[in-house]
Amino acid sequence: MNKTELVKSYLMNEIEQGKIRNGERLPGCREMAKRLSVNKITVNKAYKEMEDMHLLYCVPRGGYYYAGADMKEVAISKSIDFQTVTPDPTLIPYRAFTHAMNRAIEEHKKTLFNYETPLGLKDLRETLKGRFEQNGVYASSSQILITHGAQQGIYLSLKALFPSPSDGKLLVETPTYHLALDMAKSLNIDCVGISRSAHGIHLDELECIFKKEHIKAFYIIPRHHNPTGYSLLEKDKKRIVELCYRYQVLLIEDDYLADLGTDKRNLPLYYYDTNQLTIYIRSFSKTFIPGIRLGALVMPNTLYEPIINQKYLLDISTSSITQGALDFFIKSGMYDQHIQKVNTCYKRKLLKAKAILTRTSPAGLSFHVPKQGLFLWLTLPAEVSVQRVAEKLAANNIRVSSSSQFYIADQVEQNLRLCISGVPEKDLAALSAVIEAIKDEMPQ
Hints:
By secondary structure, the chain is an alpha/beta fold.
């Protein structure tokens, strides 16, 4: 046995004896080299070979982790929810935000308990103005509206743009965020779909739709797409904005995960829009604290009055206390520290998920695991019933989302969406059970 095999054999023995558990970090190369009296280069080579076997996964500058055993060997004692988009409970900064609430009340006690303007707390809007500029969103604080989450931002946009059912059509990606579809349906807005795939959006098809249909607005999630996890290329974003300007189509850009590890070179559509055709929507729920229900909407000047009027009719204004607390949380630097922690956690989860899916997936099953984001998108073989797979997993306390809810009509699609945000890292081994359920439905 050469020295590389010696390291691998030692690690496999540690795993078999339960000394290295699912999701656990392995000893560093220097420590392992000292333990086995070998060169650290040898240890690194062994780790890389085990990574190639999908037994380990690597977190850049964070070491190697054990990818976990097949679910046949793992007992599931509680419900594992791949449906919810709620953040991992261990990442919610309860104490820090409580401190922020107390400080905000002390600093703004004369104003926080009164009605605020529909736009929201001025201090927070000024803070967000500076923050948004760092991400390529340049707007005045008077164009920023604080909302009850991104969902209210979408609703306000649709209400303002479609005051009556005959006022044009809404173009949506297929698949897309299911609550946006539900809102459009409740408002009797006629929707037209355009396919969103791993290759993005077919731009010739987009122009054809703009020519043939009376499209008033295009609801789009360019980055960290829900449900697929895909992100558009920069050249495609530019072209989409150009086409919308040519055909005078307004954009509703849902950038709900803007803070979640977005590459600085990966810009929002808003950045490329120099003609104020974009309503830009941001959320603080998916990466921060869902319960505070805070989001922001950046509106073109031409839509200021209708959006403000709709906001006033809905709830007058968003809670000033939570706005003040978020403002303090951002200014103090605590928000950036929190986001860094969230990004590190989710990147580690995605790497582990990719290792498990790569190791266990059968021929005929394809999957997409993004480098950043929340969603895994599985495409099942045509002969497999997505519904039966979902039902079988539910019977074993594993909840997944079938793709039908993400389409305009009841389309038969061969996809499952799995969200990793609320699943503890140690429970990601349940992905092997998902694969086993799919294999069981495949012809032998």
